[in-house]
Design goal:
homodimer, D-amino Acid Aminotransferase, Chain A, domain 1, 11 strands, about 35% helix, globular, disordered C terminus, ATP-binding (chains A, B)
């Protein structure tokens, strides 16, 4: 069993397993194992969240299956590079299982990552990060991303991503759906396929928003949205990950997460609208290209899909 | 002219005019004059906002007229108790003009009142207030309220209101629509009339929310919603007030205001739903009482209106 475990190749943020360092592992069969470090209360907290979340009948089944990794309890596993050390791991769904060339973005949602009753030390640390990143201003920040394109994989260094200013975050949301992500003017060629359509990212974000306008069970501090699609726009999905700082909602909506989510939705909508405007639904050449893209992706949903334009996307 | 000016009787929050203190004045004809203290940059900032807001064609006319006080420029007026001192005043709409017995609530929206680029001193002051009030937790706080009922006016001291905990804020939203606001179990007798209906507070809050999901022109820090109705539920309205800390949106939605607004909407919805459940639309006695209330208020909109119930409202 242990021989089959490996580090997730497409991880863009969070702890990475390495020499003397704990990090998640995957088994290549759809399982994602997240170590529960006994010296860190966050692991126990995240386990408690999964147990609570998956047993709470007030969470709609569709929300659970659409937006959360499936959860299979815990499993004792050897730690890589220290095979004599056994540690319990959360057994979660490998959200990128089956993707051949995943494009992935980790977006930490919420203008603030500190929560009421946090220790003063943790509070001060979070507050500083929120003010020094785009969180406070924008309601979210990007923790990491990678984009596969024809000539390979584009993955900016996570330290660089963490320092992104507002304009760079906006640019990232365009790069994420571009065939030339590292160009000065990314083409947003996949915007309609990935962000648009009734099963696209925007539709999923809007469904999630509806739940957050109503649910008062949990407040998701420091939780990320993992946004992913496979080459050509296939299987675009949005999942919540990282629940080490979730607290009970106590009858109040999670206005911090909801506000940040609405901010993200606004920008995704704008990029989508710009892409549609730039392409125009009546240009025969672009429609043909769009049809090709749709066929390549096995999709029929999007009504408008765009290719690169000479004018670029604004 | 000066002889006709008086202090607004129904002010529930903010500066009050008094000996040696500047505060707003009304003329009894629908005008509200807010002094522009030359020693305080907030006045100049608020004037700049009004000028900018009322000249910006991107603000829908319906939003402007529904949710903002009308603005008539500035006017030089003598200061009460110091008639030799002349000061410029903002000429605004007296939002309670024509109300005989207004019930009024001032709700400061947003989990945080500090804004990016605020001075460290102002930032620290706001942060402390946000954490010590319900703002951080709930996304809004109540700065003051008054409720008229049959035996007079109930107006808790504003210092007490400012210290309200979450449960007391929730209770206030019930007291605000009760005929017995100072009872242990307020009856929410006017919930359907005031909060409900196609012209009620909830409908107005939802319309405002739609705009905030889209607008990226302004970020309204430390801005309040003035929620008011007259005796019997008449003329329920929601207006934004206090714009001394509004900054430009720069293409980002005001996720801080929007999140708090959604939190308020959730609680108002719940109180309304509870009131409807408690009353039940089929009880003939309550329907008759509701019809009386509607007639008294000159309303025909609400489909369900409730009277007090023995079980109270939860």
């Amino acid at each position: 069993m242990a021989a089959m475990l490996q580090r997730p190749e497409h991880q863009v943020a969070g702890h990475e397993a390495g020499a003397g360092k704990l990090g998640p592992l995957i088994d290549g069969s759809g399982n994602f194992f997240k170590p529960l470090d006994p010296s860190d209360e966050r692991g126990a907290h995240e386990l408690a969240f999964y147990n609570s979340f998956y047993s709470d009948q007030r969470v709609p089944r569709s929300i659970r299956s659409s937006f959360f990794p499936s959860f299979g309890g815990t499993k004792i596993l050897p730690v890589p590079d220290s095979p004599d050390l056994l540690l319990p791991h959360l057994v979660l769904e490998d959200l990128l299982h089956g993707y051949s060339n995943p494009c992935v973005m980790d977006v930490k949602i919420g203008a603030r990552t500190w929560y009421p009753n946090a220790s003063e030390k943790y509070y001060a640390k979070c507050l500083k990060k929120d003010r020094n990143s785009t969180s406070a201003l924008l309601g979210f920040r990007i923790s990491g991303l990678q984009v596969h394109h024809e000539s390979g994989r584009w993955k900016p260094h996570r330290d660089k991503v963490k320092k992104y200013a507002v304009t760079e975050v906006r640019q990232s949301l365009r790069q994420f759906v571009s065939k030339n992500p590292d160009a000065t003017d990314p083409d947003c060629a996949l915007a309609s396929l990935v962000y648009g359509g009734s099963n696209g990212i925007l539709a999923q974000l809007l469904e999630l928003k509806s739940w957050f306008e109503d649910q008062t069970l949990f407040h998701f501090y420091s939780t990320s949205l993992l946004i992913a699609y496979d080459k050509g726009g296939k299987a675009a999905r949005v999942k919540l990950i990282d629940f080490a700082h979730v607290i009970e909602g106590e009858g109040i909506i999670d206005h911090n997460f909801l506000g940040g989510l609405c901010s993200l939705i606004k920008w995704v909508s704008e990029i989508l609208a710009d892409a549609k405007t730039a392409a125009g639904p009546t240009d025969p050449q672009l429609l043909e290209r769009a049809a090709d893209l749709e066929a390549a992706a096995g999709l029929t949903e999007p009504k408008v899909a765009v290719g690169p334009t000479e004018n670029g996307i604004h």
